[in-house]
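Below sits the subject:

***
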Amino acid sequence: MKKHLLALLLPIVGSYCSAPLASMIDFPLDPFYVTSSDEAKQLLAQRYTLTGLVNESVSTSLLSTQYRFYQGFANAVACSSSVVVTVDRNTKEVMQIYTHLLDESECQSAKEDNRAIDLDTPEQTYGPHVTAGNVKQIVTTSLNVFDPDPLTALEDTTLEYSDVISNAAYSLYSDIEVTEVAGTRYLENSRVRAVDVRAFDLDGDGTLEADVSQQGIITSASDFTIERDIRDYENKHTQFLDTMAFYHIDKSVQYLQQLGFDIVSEKPVQFDAFFGNKDNSTAYLAQNVIVFGNGVSADAEDADVILHELGHMINFSLVKRWRDGDTGAIGEGLGDYWAASSRYRSNKTFQPDTVFRWDGINTSKTSTRILNDTEARYLPGASYPAHVVRNGSNVDQLWSTPLFQVLKLAIAEHGEPAHEHIDRIIWEGIAALGGGVTMPDAALSIVKAAERLYPQSNYSDLFVKQFKAHNILTNAVAFYAPQFLMIKDGKTKVTLDLFNLSGKNIHTFTGRFEQSDDVLSFDTALSSKKQQATITVKVPDSVQCGDAFTLNAETVTDFNNQQIPTKGEYSIPFIVCTPKLTHTPKVENSTLSDATSTEEGLGGNKIGVKSYLLTLADTAVLDNDFAVSLHIKHKRMSDLKITLTPPVGDREITLLAYDNIQQDEFNQQLMSRFNQQVNRLKGESLEGTWTLKVTDRAVGESGELVSWGIANISGYSKPETATDETNNNNNNGNNEATNSSSKSGGGSLGWLSLFMLVIIKLRKNTP
């Protein structure tokens, strides 16, 4: 492999073209000031020639005012078309503009959620007493609950739903606000109240279907401290379930208010803790009610389920027309994050990256989800509704994983105050969005919120790194360069391949290098197709064969004259001279197994797996300097995971894992000194049969394994033998290899950047 990625900085305030199409997020270069919806519409008409918008609402978040609009044609109010102008609450300056515009034909069949619901409410029960002169008052009481669930509280993974739960699993809380009328207490306060759904038009046909699990309004003369007994549920005695939902929603809403977000200013969150006989729970914004299922197990016994559904209500309250685009997967991921974030405050050690551990194992099918799905990758152009699998990973986990991993990293670095900071950043970023949002849009908005809320912290850096790891955010421009440098007279020419990953035309791009007099400059539009540039790199005399050498660069990416240019600092790693291997890589020239479509398997796909064997008789041990050779061709390298298993033991070393490699060829020496995964093989004997496994999770593209191998490095070729010509055309990193390609190879993370030798620094973006 000749080339590896120069990991350019993602545009923190990334922007695209001046005219909004479909979904986009825009951070204006020039200052604009808006104090009303009318002024916001004037700005939109001037900037985008965008007229005919209808006022939807004006909302506020911690730092901002959001002026919301939809397109003024039939059914548009029910459609996901959105324009959101976010303005700083103090300065009135426009901070970002989100647009999701649709053709009128796309909204012809859109309908508002007008499903009716018949509720039994506390007011209906105590209303006659109030009319008779009894006082309605808020009093405090004690509640007995699982917090968050018995399995977690006891740290007992063998616990089953039918077991009698020990007292140690319960938590008793006092001073909880409830409503009292005429000596009877109701699970109701200004933030949350328990209701009973008597009938609900679930399918939208206008007919109310009766709830088979009507339990009535739960009351008490004193405290709500009953313990759970699942036999009670059969008789619709559900005080424990109502108490669970009431306590956890109330606690979470109060915490949300502490963060600065108020979703109950107009009315409290309503819930029915014992709805229907389905193993499913749902939040309904239009009806302002959360219903918890009662299938194989009662969902409200698990605080993760309760808080997940509340996460939906928070999401829906901040962005009322939350639908289309990637909103399904983002919403589920936000719900999972909110549940895991709450639990992480009190329990950081017992399975912190899993949600629904109690309800999820007591269902008709296992429905736990994780928040550390390191292999999940975003695929631009794919659809992301809720609960589906894309490229082998649950899409809900694709969104929750980077959020939760940022939370853990921030707390580890900054302490407990970071917990509130990260929670606040996420909801502030979501509040600036509208219908039809994609994961990249949402990620950019969250990164911008981190910059604005905590400008002196590294929170935005943490979000960028995690979103990039899952391909949700990508570099505006990707570079590929030689892996090895062959130097003559202290300098060498390097050919760079450039790829525009932004999805839009780049107006100008400039790169300046510390160790080169050359300046990369593209004054015409940089399209998505590959372009090449050649620079002369000056290498210090002190650099020896086998040394790592970095080329430092600064770049400016300008999408157009109305957007904030993106500035980036990065370091490009090289190795001086090419290594000589003790074993020639094995030539395979073998077609890989592509994933296939099927009704079963991962999200409708059956993964393609193919294994290759390499038997070596060499009894030498892998020493301090060895390499794994890998030469593979594939039009979509992000489909592939490639692992290596040594002859002895069951260790499986990951070489590539669904990486966002733009080129269709990967031909590299993965060297132990610069690759932590490969270095794990140090001390292994070469003798025996090695296994290379290639897994393909996406349908549509096949590829070829050209060659592979593993060997010690016996030395390096001498710089004096190289010329400028050989540097550009015979720099595949293995002089002895047969069938090595001289074409540019791929490597989205590069041979060093996987493991800390690519140094990416975030810089504040300035006009």
Observations:
- The two ends are 39 Å apart (CA to CA).
- Residues 239-259 form the longest helix (21 residues).
- The mean pLDDT is 86.
- The first strand starts at residue 3 and ends at 6.
